[in-house]
Design brief:
The structure is a homodimer of 87-residue chains. With 87 residues, the first copy, chain A, is of the alpha+beta class. Chain A has a single domain (3-70), classed as Alpha-Beta Plaits, CATH 3.30.70.240. Chain A is built from two helices and five strands. In chain A, strands 2-3-1-4 form a four-stranded antiparallel β-sheet, covered by helices on one side. In chain A, a hairpin with a 2-residue loop joins strand 2 (27-30) and strand 3 (33-37). The longest helix of chain A has 14 residues, at 12-25. The first copy, chain A, starts with a strand and ends in a 10-residue tail after the last strand. Residues 81-87 of chain A have low confidence and may be disordered. At the A-B interface, strand 1, helix 2, strand 4 and strand 5 of A face strand 1, helix 2, strand 4 and strand 5 of B. Strand 4 of chain A pairs antiparallel with strand 5 of chain B. Chains A, B: GO terms for molecular function: hydrolase activity; metal ion binding; RNA endonuclease activity. Chains A, B: Pfam families: CRISPR_Cas2.
Chain lengths: 87, 87
């Protein structure tokens, strides 16, 4: 299943709603960074919901990987998420 | 050459310094998101410099990919960077 890394950058006023939305679909890694597997339908649905919350100046970036195995995560400083994998 | 996606999440006071540091190594994508190729030596050097700037509560996440071809970037909203690639 495709694996996603998602980062949002939105006005402080909408951070709470975005956090709640992204947590419904993905695993929280650090502040505005999330990861997880999504089916094409789930990804489309997340994009639609994010789009509805976003306003002028807000942005979201998704990185889609064919498989989680194609990447390694290296974290410096706080690692808030429950899952962790270091090189 | 390994391809990196980097996201930092630091106190507002250090955002300017982090931005300046990351721009020396990578391409700016959106607010705190950067991308680019790094040799192992460059990556080590960026990690060391970031570590020196970071303080309590700050965090940086790097995603290392074997090759840029293994991922696709999908951006919603503003796309500030000069490079852009949509699905």
């Amino acid at each position: 299943m495709p694996y996603f890394v998602a980062v949002y950058d939105v006005n402080q006023k909408r951070v709470g709603k975005m956090l709640k939305l992204f947590r419904r679909y993905l695993t929280w890694i650090q502040n505005s960074v999330f990861e997880g597997e999504l089916t094409p339908a789930q990804f489309k649905s997340l994009q639609t919901e994010a789009d509805q919350l976003m306003q002028e100046g807000d942005g979201v970036v998704f990185y889609q990987l064919r498989d989680e195995r194609y990447m390694d995560r290296i974290a410096l400083g706080k690692e808030k998420a429950e899952k962790s994998r270091f090189l």
